Fold this sequence. Notes:
The chain is of the alpha+beta class.
Amino acid sequence: MYLCKKIILFDKKFIPKKINTSNLKKGSITFKAPSNIALVKYWGKEAIQVPKNPSISFTLDACFTITTLTFELKSTKSDTFDFDVFFENKKEESFKPKITTFFNRIEQYLPFLKEYKFVIKTRNSFPHSSGIASSASGMAALSLCLMQMEKELSTNLSQVYFNKKASFLARLGSGSACRSINGKVVVWGKHVVIDSSSNYMGIEFPYPIHKNFKNYHDTILLVDKGQKQVSSTVGHNLMNNHPFAESRFKQANENLDKMSVILQNGNLKQFIELVESEALTLHAMMMTSTPYFILMKSNTLKIIEKIWAFRKQTNATICFTLDAGANVHVLYPENEKEQINNFIVNELIEHCQNNQYICDRIGSGAKLIATQK
Ligand code: DP6
Protein backbone atom coordinates (compact mmCIF):
# COMPACT_ATOMS: atom_id res chain seq x y z
CA MET A 1 0.00 0.00 0.00
CA TYR A 2 2.72 2.43 1.06
CA LEU A 3 4.85 1.43 -1.95
CA CYS A 4 1.94 1.99 -4.36
CA LYS A 5 1.38 5.47 -3.03
CA LYS A 6 5.06 6.28 -3.35
CA ILE A 7 5.20 5.18 -6.98
CA ILE A 8 2.21 7.33 -7.89
CA LEU A 9 3.69 10.37 -6.15
CA PHE A 10 7.04 9.81 -7.84
CA ASP A 11 5.47 9.55 -11.28
CA LYS A 12 3.58 12.82 -10.74
CA LYS A 13 6.84 14.72 -10.52
CA PHE A 14 7.36 14.06 -14.23
CA ILE A 15 3.89 15.03 -15.43
CA PRO A 16 4.21 18.56 -16.80
CA LYS A 17 1.70 21.07 -15.53
CA LYS A 18 0.69 22.88 -18.69
CA ILE A 19 2.15 22.64 -22.15
CA ASN A 20 1.26 25.04 -24.92
CA THR A 21 2.29 23.62 -28.28
CA SER A 22 1.31 26.66 -30.36
CA ASN A 23 4.78 28.21 -29.92
CA LEU A 24 6.61 25.20 -31.30
CA LYS A 25 5.25 24.45 -34.76
CA LYS A 26 8.13 22.49 -36.22
CA GLY A 27 11.79 21.73 -35.84
CA SER A 28 14.36 19.03 -35.38
CA ILE A 29 16.61 17.80 -32.59
CA THR A 30 19.66 15.53 -32.79
CA PHE A 31 21.15 13.65 -29.83
CA LYS A 32 24.03 11.23 -29.52
CA ALA A 33 23.63 8.62 -26.76
CA PRO A 34 26.15 5.97 -25.77
CA SER A 35 25.81 2.28 -25.15
CA ASN A 36 26.79 0.96 -21.70
CA ILE A 37 28.23 -2.24 -20.26
CA ALA A 38 26.92 -3.53 -16.95
CA LEU A 39 29.39 -4.63 -14.26
CA VAL A 40 26.62 -5.83 -11.94
CA LYS A 41 23.86 -7.07 -14.22
CA TYR A 42 20.17 -6.24 -14.49
CA TRP A 43 18.40 -9.52 -15.15
CA GLY A 44 14.78 -9.82 -14.07
CA LYS A 45 12.10 -7.13 -13.94
CA GLU A 46 8.59 -6.35 -12.79
CA ALA A 47 5.94 -4.43 -14.68
CA ILE A 48 6.54 -1.76 -15.82
CA GLN A 49 10.29 -1.78 -16.26
CA VAL A 50 11.15 -1.97 -12.56
CA PRO A 51 14.33 -3.99 -12.00
CA LYS A 52 14.37 -6.93 -9.57
CA ASN A 53 17.85 -5.89 -8.49
CA PRO A 54 20.06 -2.81 -8.80
CA SER A 55 22.75 -2.71 -11.50
CA ILE A 56 25.80 -0.58 -12.29
CA SER A 57 27.47 0.11 -15.62
CA PHE A 58 30.36 1.83 -17.35
CA THR A 59 29.12 4.26 -19.97
CA LEU A 60 30.83 3.59 -23.32
CA ASP A 61 32.26 6.09 -25.75
CA ALA A 62 32.74 4.63 -29.24
CA CYS A 63 29.49 2.66 -29.33
CA PHE A 64 26.63 5.10 -29.69
CA THR A 65 23.41 5.94 -31.49
CA ILE A 66 22.69 9.26 -33.20
CA THR A 67 19.02 10.10 -33.54
CA THR A 68 17.38 13.05 -35.26
CA LEU A 69 13.79 13.73 -34.31
CA THR A 70 11.92 15.97 -36.76
CA PHE A 71 8.54 17.20 -35.61
CA GLU A 72 5.64 19.18 -37.06
CA LEU A 73 2.45 20.26 -35.31
CA LYS A 74 -0.54 18.48 -36.86
CA SER A 75 -3.11 20.77 -38.47
CA THR A 76 -5.95 18.72 -37.06
CA LYS A 77 -5.76 16.85 -33.77
CA SER A 78 -5.89 13.08 -33.90
CA ASP A 79 -5.85 10.35 -31.33
CA THR A 80 -2.92 8.43 -32.80
CA PHE A 81 0.84 8.55 -32.62
CA ASP A 82 2.04 9.58 -36.07
CA PHE A 83 5.64 8.76 -36.84
CA ASP A 84 7.97 7.18 -39.37
CA VAL A 85 11.27 5.57 -38.47
CA PHE A 86 14.35 5.44 -40.65
CA PHE A 87 17.35 3.30 -39.73
CA GLU A 88 20.50 4.22 -41.65
CA ASN A 89 18.32 6.19 -44.09
CA LYS A 90 15.99 3.28 -44.85
CA LYS A 91 12.40 3.25 -43.66
CA GLU A 92 12.16 0.59 -40.93
CA GLU A 93 8.62 -0.62 -40.30
CA SER A 94 9.86 -3.33 -37.92
CA PHE A 95 10.96 -0.68 -35.38
CA LYS A 96 7.46 0.77 -35.12
CA PRO A 97 5.75 -1.61 -32.63
CA LYS A 98 8.49 -1.12 -29.99
CA ILE A 99 8.29 2.66 -30.39
CA THR A 100 4.47 2.59 -30.24
CA THR A 101 4.65 0.66 -26.94
CA PHE A 102 7.20 3.20 -25.72
CA PHE A 103 4.98 6.15 -26.73
CA ASN A 104 2.01 4.57 -24.97
CA ARG A 105 4.05 4.20 -21.79
CA ILE A 106 5.41 7.76 -21.81
CA GLU A 107 2.41 9.70 -23.14
CA GLN A 108 1.21 10.76 -19.71
CA TYR A 109 4.63 12.31 -19.06
CA LEU A 110 4.84 13.97 -22.49
CA PRO A 111 1.22 14.88 -23.18
CA PHE A 112 2.08 16.63 -26.47
CA LEU A 113 3.06 13.44 -28.32
CA LYS A 114 -0.19 13.05 -30.25
CA GLU A 115 -0.14 16.68 -31.33
CA TYR A 116 2.87 16.22 -33.60
CA LYS A 117 3.87 14.21 -36.63
CA PHE A 118 7.38 12.83 -36.13
CA VAL A 119 10.15 11.49 -38.31
CA ILE A 120 12.79 9.56 -36.37
CA LYS A 121 16.10 9.03 -38.15
CA THR A 122 18.60 6.88 -36.35
CA ARG A 123 21.99 5.26 -36.90
CA ASN A 124 24.53 3.41 -34.79
CA SER A 125 28.30 3.77 -34.72
CA PHE A 126 28.63 -0.01 -34.43
CA PRO A 127 27.78 -2.39 -37.28
CA HIS A 128 24.15 -3.43 -37.56
CA SER A 129 23.57 -6.96 -36.24
CA SER A 130 26.95 -6.93 -34.48
CA GLY A 131 25.25 -8.55 -31.53
CA ILE A 132 25.64 -5.26 -29.65
CA ALA A 133 22.25 -4.23 -28.29
CA SER A 134 21.21 -0.89 -29.75
CA SER A 135 18.13 -0.62 -27.54
CA ALA A 136 20.03 1.09 -24.70
CA SER A 137 21.64 3.81 -26.84
CA GLY A 138 18.63 4.02 -29.18
CA MET A 139 15.98 4.47 -26.51
CA ALA A 140 18.25 6.90 -24.63
CA ALA A 141 18.77 9.04 -27.74
CA LEU A 142 15.05 9.13 -28.55
CA SER A 143 14.12 10.00 -24.94
CA LEU A 144 16.63 12.84 -24.95
CA CYS A 145 15.22 14.25 -28.20
CA LEU A 146 11.71 14.17 -26.70
CA MET A 147 12.94 15.81 -23.50
CA GLN A 148 14.57 18.55 -25.55
CA MET A 149 11.13 19.18 -27.09
CA GLU A 150 9.66 19.44 -23.61
CA LYS A 151 12.45 21.86 -22.71
CA GLU A 152 11.66 24.03 -25.73
CA LEU A 153 7.97 23.97 -24.80
CA SER A 154 8.61 24.93 -21.17
CA THR A 155 9.81 28.12 -19.60
CA ASN A 156 12.26 26.91 -16.99
CA LEU A 157 13.44 23.35 -16.97
CA SER A 158 16.68 22.64 -15.07
CA GLN A 159 19.44 20.39 -16.39
CA VAL A 160 19.07 18.15 -13.33
CA TYR A 161 15.35 17.65 -14.03
CA PHE A 162 16.13 17.16 -17.74
CA ASN A 163 18.59 14.33 -17.09
CA LYS A 164 16.44 12.66 -14.45
CA LYS A 165 13.34 12.66 -16.58
CA ALA A 166 15.25 11.59 -19.73
CA SER A 167 16.53 8.57 -17.79
CA PHE A 168 13.05 7.89 -16.36
CA LEU A 169 11.58 7.90 -19.88
CA ALA A 170 14.42 5.86 -21.40
CA ARG A 171 13.85 3.15 -18.78
CA LEU A 172 10.31 2.78 -20.06
CA GLY A 173 11.73 2.07 -23.53
CA SER A 174 14.44 -0.34 -22.42
CA GLY A 175 15.67 -0.85 -18.86
CA SER A 176 19.39 -0.53 -19.53
CA ALA A 177 18.74 2.65 -21.58
CA CYS A 178 18.26 4.61 -18.36
CA ARG A 179 21.99 4.05 -17.70
CA SER A 180 22.91 5.76 -21.02
CA ILE A 181 22.06 9.39 -20.25
CA ASN A 182 24.57 11.00 -17.95
CA GLY A 183 27.79 10.08 -16.15
CA LYS A 184 30.71 7.71 -16.55
CA VAL A 185 29.47 5.14 -14.09
CA VAL A 186 25.73 4.81 -13.58
CA VAL A 187 23.62 3.00 -10.99
CA TRP A 188 20.02 1.99 -11.65
CA GLY A 189 17.89 0.45 -8.92
CA LYS A 190 17.35 1.23 -5.27
CA HIS A 191 20.26 0.26 -3.04
CA VAL A 192 20.86 1.25 0.58
CA VAL A 193 24.53 2.16 0.14
CA ILE A 194 24.02 4.34 -2.92
CA ASP A 195 22.52 7.71 -2.00
CA SER A 196 19.55 8.77 -4.17
CA SER A 197 19.54 5.50 -6.12
CA SER A 198 16.16 4.75 -7.65
CA ASN A 199 14.26 1.97 -9.37
CA TYR A 200 12.85 4.52 -11.80
CA MET A 201 15.99 6.07 -13.29
CA GLY A 202 19.74 5.82 -13.48
CA ILE A 203 21.93 8.14 -11.40
CA GLU A 204 25.60 8.95 -11.80
CA PHE A 205 27.66 6.97 -9.24
CA PRO A 206 27.63 9.55 -6.44
CA TYR A 207 31.08 8.92 -4.88
CA PRO A 208 34.63 9.71 -6.10
CA ILE A 209 35.93 7.03 -8.49
CA HIS A 210 39.54 5.85 -8.05
CA LYS A 211 42.03 6.93 -10.71
CA ASN A 212 42.66 3.28 -11.67
CA PHE A 213 39.36 3.41 -13.55
CA LYS A 214 40.19 6.57 -15.49
CA ASN A 215 39.93 5.83 -19.21
CA TYR A 216 39.21 2.15 -18.52
CA HIS A 217 39.16 0.19 -21.77
CA ASP A 218 36.52 -2.13 -23.16
CA THR A 219 37.52 -3.97 -26.33
CA ILE A 220 34.42 -5.70 -27.65
CA LEU A 221 35.12 -8.96 -29.44
CA LEU A 222 32.37 -9.72 -31.95
CA VAL A 223 32.15 -13.47 -31.66
CA ASP A 224 28.67 -13.91 -33.05
CA LYS A 225 26.94 -11.20 -35.00
CA GLY A 226 23.69 -13.09 -35.57
CA GLN A 227 20.17 -12.32 -34.36
CA LYS A 228 19.67 -12.51 -30.60
CA GLN A 229 18.62 -16.03 -29.57
CA VAL A 230 16.55 -14.70 -26.69
CA SER A 231 14.97 -11.23 -26.69
CA SER A 232 15.69 -9.27 -23.52
CA THR A 233 12.03 -9.25 -22.47
CA VAL A 234 11.83 -13.04 -22.79
CA GLY A 235 15.13 -13.30 -20.95
CA HIS A 236 14.04 -11.12 -18.04
CA ASN A 237 10.80 -13.08 -17.76
CA LEU A 238 12.82 -16.26 -17.30
CA MET A 239 13.66 -14.93 -13.85
CA ASN A 240 10.00 -15.26 -12.81
CA ASN A 241 9.69 -18.62 -11.06
CA HIS A 242 13.41 -19.23 -11.57
CA PRO A 243 14.68 -21.64 -8.88
CA PHE A 244 17.65 -19.41 -8.05
CA ALA A 245 15.92 -16.03 -8.47
CA GLU A 246 15.85 -14.92 -4.83
CA SER A 247 19.49 -15.82 -4.18
CA ARG A 248 20.50 -14.11 -7.38
CA PHE A 249 18.71 -10.86 -6.50
CA LYS A 250 20.27 -10.95 -3.02
CA GLN A 251 23.71 -11.61 -4.52
CA ALA A 252 23.36 -8.71 -7.00
CA ASN A 253 22.59 -6.38 -4.08
CA GLU A 254 25.67 -7.62 -2.21
CA ASN A 255 27.79 -7.33 -5.35
CA LEU A 256 26.72 -3.73 -5.90
CA ASP A 257 27.73 -2.96 -2.34
CA LYS A 258 31.17 -4.51 -3.00
CA MET A 259 31.49 -2.80 -6.39
CA SER A 260 30.79 0.56 -4.81
CA VAL A 261 33.74 0.04 -2.43
CA ILE A 262 36.02 -1.24 -5.23
CA LEU A 263 35.28 1.72 -7.50
CA GLN A 264 36.33 4.02 -4.68
CA ASN A 265 39.41 2.16 -3.44
CA GLY A 266 40.68 1.04 -6.88
CA ASN A 267 41.28 -2.62 -5.95
CA LEU A 268 41.58 -4.09 -9.43
CA LYS A 269 42.06 -7.68 -8.28
CA GLN A 270 38.68 -7.59 -6.57
CA PHE A 271 37.21 -5.75 -9.55
CA ILE A 272 38.24 -8.57 -11.88
CA GLU A 273 36.77 -11.27 -9.63
CA LEU A 274 33.47 -9.49 -9.23
CA VAL A 275 33.02 -8.53 -12.88
CA GLU A 276 33.74 -12.02 -14.18
CA SER A 277 31.55 -13.64 -11.54
CA GLU A 278 28.66 -11.36 -12.51
CA ALA A 279 29.05 -12.22 -16.21
CA LEU A 280 29.12 -15.95 -15.55
CA THR A 281 26.19 -15.70 -13.13
CA LEU A 282 24.10 -13.95 -15.79
CA HIS A 283 24.78 -16.86 -18.14
CA ALA A 284 24.24 -19.39 -15.38
CA MET A 285 20.77 -17.91 -14.85
CA MET A 286 20.00 -18.51 -18.52
CA MET A 287 21.39 -22.03 -18.44
CA THR A 288 19.23 -22.93 -15.45
CA SER A 289 15.92 -21.36 -16.47
CA THR A 290 12.95 -23.06 -18.09
CA PRO A 291 13.38 -23.15 -21.04
CA TYR A 292 17.19 -23.03 -20.82
CA PHE A 293 19.65 -21.38 -23.18
CA ILE A 294 23.37 -21.41 -23.81
CA LEU A 295 24.23 -18.04 -25.28
CA MET A 296 27.99 -18.49 -25.32
CA LYS A 297 29.64 -19.98 -28.41
CA SER A 298 32.73 -22.17 -28.41
CA ASN A 299 34.76 -19.08 -29.37
CA THR A 300 33.43 -17.26 -26.29
CA LEU A 301 34.91 -20.01 -24.12
CA LYS A 302 38.18 -20.10 -26.06
CA ILE A 303 38.58 -16.36 -25.45
CA ILE A 304 37.81 -16.71 -21.74
CA GLU A 305 40.34 -19.52 -21.37
CA LYS A 306 43.01 -17.49 -23.17
CA ILE A 307 42.29 -14.43 -20.97
CA TRP A 308 42.69 -16.57 -17.83
CA ALA A 309 45.93 -18.16 -19.08
CA PHE A 310 47.37 -14.78 -20.08
CA ARG A 311 46.44 -13.29 -16.71
CA LYS A 312 48.10 -16.14 -14.87
CA GLN A 313 51.23 -15.86 -16.98
CA THR A 314 51.67 -12.09 -16.97
CA ASN A 315 49.68 -10.79 -13.98
CA ALA A 316 48.02 -8.37 -16.38
CA THR A 317 44.87 -6.60 -15.12
CA ILE A 318 42.60 -8.03 -17.78
CA CYS A 319 39.12 -9.43 -17.34
CA PHE A 320 35.99 -10.12 -19.35
CA THR A 321 32.31 -9.47 -19.08
CA LEU A 322 29.39 -10.65 -21.20
CA ASP A 323 25.98 -9.39 -22.25
CA ALA A 324 23.09 -11.73 -22.99
CA GLY A 325 24.98 -13.07 -26.02
CA ALA A 326 28.26 -14.56 -27.24
CA ASN A 327 30.33 -11.38 -27.61
CA VAL A 328 33.10 -10.76 -25.09
CA HIS A 329 33.87 -7.37 -23.53
CA VAL A 330 37.55 -7.28 -22.53
CA LEU A 331 38.16 -4.76 -19.75
CA TYR A 332 41.57 -3.32 -18.78
CA PRO A 333 43.17 -0.15 -17.37
CA GLU A 334 44.76 2.61 -19.41
CA ASN A 335 48.32 1.98 -18.11
CA GLU A 336 48.34 -1.62 -19.43
CA LYS A 337 46.76 -0.89 -22.79
CA GLU A 338 49.82 -1.61 -24.95
CA GLN A 339 50.55 -5.06 -23.61
CA ILE A 340 46.87 -6.06 -23.51
CA ASN A 341 46.09 -4.65 -26.96
CA ASN A 342 48.94 -6.70 -28.41
CA PHE A 343 47.57 -9.81 -26.71
CA ILE A 344 44.08 -9.12 -28.06
CA VAL A 345 45.28 -8.59 -31.62
CA ASN A 346 47.71 -11.51 -31.61
CA GLU A 347 45.64 -14.06 -29.69
CA LEU A 348 41.97 -13.20 -29.41
CA ILE A 349 40.64 -11.67 -32.62
CA GLU A 350 41.12 -14.93 -34.49
CA HIS A 351 38.06 -16.12 -32.51
CA CYS A 352 35.89 -13.22 -33.72
CA GLN A 353 33.55 -13.39 -36.69
CA ASN A 354 35.53 -11.92 -39.64
CA ASN A 355 38.15 -10.84 -37.08
CA GLN A 356 35.86 -7.97 -36.05
CA TYR A 357 36.25 -6.10 -32.81
CA ILE A 358 35.55 -2.59 -31.46
CA CYS A 359 37.96 -0.58 -29.31
CA ASP A 360 35.93 1.26 -26.74
CA ARG A 361 36.45 2.85 -23.33
CA ILE A 362 34.59 4.66 -20.57
CA GLY A 363 32.70 7.68 -21.90
CA SER A 364 30.81 10.40 -20.13
CA GLY A 365 27.25 10.31 -21.44
CA ALA A 366 24.91 11.67 -24.07
CA LYS A 367 25.34 14.92 -26.02
CA LEU A 368 23.02 17.32 -27.78
CA ILE A 369 24.30 17.60 -31.35
CA ALA A 370 21.87 20.06 -32.94
CA THR A 371 18.51 21.75 -32.67
CA GLN A 372 16.63 23.59 -35.40
CA LYS A 373 13.36 25.50 -35.36
C1 DP6 B 1 22.03 -8.60 -19.95
O1 DP6 B 1 17.76 -3.38 -20.99
O2 DP6 B 1 17.91 -4.91 -22.95
O3 DP6 B 1 22.36 -6.43 -20.86
O4 DP6 B 1 14.41 -3.69 -20.22
O5 DP6 B 1 13.72 -5.63 -21.61
O6 DP6 B 1 14.79 -3.65 -22.71
P1 DP6 B 1 14.69 -4.50 -21.44
O7 DP6 B 1 16.09 -5.22 -21.24
P2 DP6 B 1 17.56 -4.73 -21.52
O8 DP6 B 1 18.37 -5.80 -20.65
C2 DP6 B 1 19.77 -5.76 -20.57
C3 DP6 B 1 20.26 -6.92 -19.80
C4 DP6 B 1 21.75 -7.11 -19.80
C5 DP6 B 1 22.35 -6.68 -18.46
C6 DP6 B 1 22.46 -5.20 -18.21
O9 DP6 B 1 22.66 -4.41 -19.16
O10 DP6 B 1 22.36 -4.84 -17.02
